[in-house]
């Protein structure tokens, strides 16, 4: 999957209708340009490409007051909604995705019902545990060590440690969700603010 598709679909969906500059501002405010490929060119390309694919409708609105061309606003189609939730669920459940994909999924996790989000994260833990078991069963030496493999053994250590830390973090999020953290889909209105009130965002263009 592509993190930029999920990010752009999610940003447009939050507004209902949004133009490219709004989407870019949102993603930069979230710092997405630091941890993903959500650069300005990628954002505008994704908007145009997904409009061609029928995932968005492009609306031409009034020209700018400076006399420029009409500004295009984008809105998700029914197919775009389906694609958004498919990518969101995939980002949360897979154990082998890139960190930007997981980060994007966590950023939009509140768009899912609480029970579904918890179930997806539990699937992720199970997949991480299965991957760890496969690594230790098929790749680690019988004595459980990998030092005799030299620096190649560090790869196995990396895989095992990554599985352990990923599962631990996911269990923590599950516990927080089970404890009632965050306002999930269907639980009432929630703020679109990313940071606590008064907190400074180093990525916001206005700060």
Descriptive account of the structure:
- This protein has helices at residues 3-15, 20-29, 32-35, 40-52, 78-93, 99-107, 114-138, 153-178, and strands spanning 18-19, 56-63, 70-76.
- Helix 1 (3-15) runs parallel beside helix 6 (99-107), helix 5 packs across helix 6 and helix 7 runs antiparallel to helix 8 (153-178).
- The two termini are 32 Å apart.
- It is elongated.
- Helix content is 56%, strand content 8%.
- Strands 1-3-2 form a 3-stranded antiparallel beta sheet.
- The longest helix has 26 residues, at 153-178.
What are the main properties of this structure?
207 residues; mainly alpha; 3-stranded antiparallel sheet; 8 helices; 3 strands; 56% helix
H/E topology pattern: HEHHHEEHHHH
**Biggest sheet: strands side by side, in what order?**
1-3-2
Q: Would you count the extended β strands for me?
A: 3
Main beta sheet strand tally, sense and closure: 3 strands, antiparallel
Number of helices: 8
The best one-word shape is elongated
Report the portion of residues in β strands: 5-15%
Short synopsis of the structure:
The protein has 207 residues and is mostly helical. It is built from 8 helices and 3 strands. The protein has helices at 3-15, 20-29, 32-35, 40-52, 78-93, 99-107, 114-138, 153-178, and strands spanning 18-19, 56-63, 70-76.
Write the layout of secondary structure elements.
Layout: H1 3-15, E1 18-19, H2 20-29, H3 32-35, H4 40-52, E2 56-63, E3 70-76, H5 78-93, H6 99-107, H7 114-138, H8 153-178
Antiparallel strand pairs: 1-3, 2-3
Helix pairs in contact: 1-4, 1-5, 1-6, 5-6, 7-8
